[in-house]
Amino acid sequence: MDILENAKQLAKGTGELVSRKAAQVKEVLLLKSRVDTCEEMLEKYYRELGKLYFETHGQEPEEIFEKHCRHIANAKRGKEELTEILRQAEAQLKEM
Questions:
Q1: What is the mean pLDDT of the chain?
Q2: Count of structural domains, the chain
Q3: pTM value surpassing 0.70
Q4: Within this chain, do residues 47 and 90 fall inside the same structural domain, yes or no?
Q5: Are residues 84 and 53 both part of a single domain?
Q6: DSSP string for residues in the chain
Q7: Could you tell me if 30 and 14 lie in one domain?
Q8: Taking 90 as the threshold, does the pLDDT of residue 75 lie above it?
C-alpha cells in the first residue's frame, strides 16, 4: 500500500469514528432534553397538587402540612397588604 492509500484509509476511519461519536453526542443531548422535560413536568404537577391541596385543605391541613400551609397563608396576606400599599402609592403619584 502506498502513502496515498494509507491516508485514504485513515481519513475514512477517522470520518466514521467522528460520525459515530456525533451520533452518540446527539443521543445523549436528546436524552438530557427528555429528562429536563420530565423534571419540568414533575415540578409543574407538584406545584398544581400543592396548590390544590392548599385550596381544599389549607384551613384545616393535616399536621404534616400545617407549617407549609401557614407559610403560604402568611405570604398571601403579605402580598395582599403590599398590593394595597402599592395601589395607594400609585394613586398618590397620579395626584401629583
A1: 93
A2: 2
A3: no
A4: no
A5: no
A6: --HHHHHHHHHHHHHHHHHHHHHHHHHHHHHHHHHHHHHHHHHHHHHHHHHHHHHHHTTS--GGGHHHHHHHHHHHHHHHHHHHHHHHHHHHHHH-
A7: yes
A8: yes
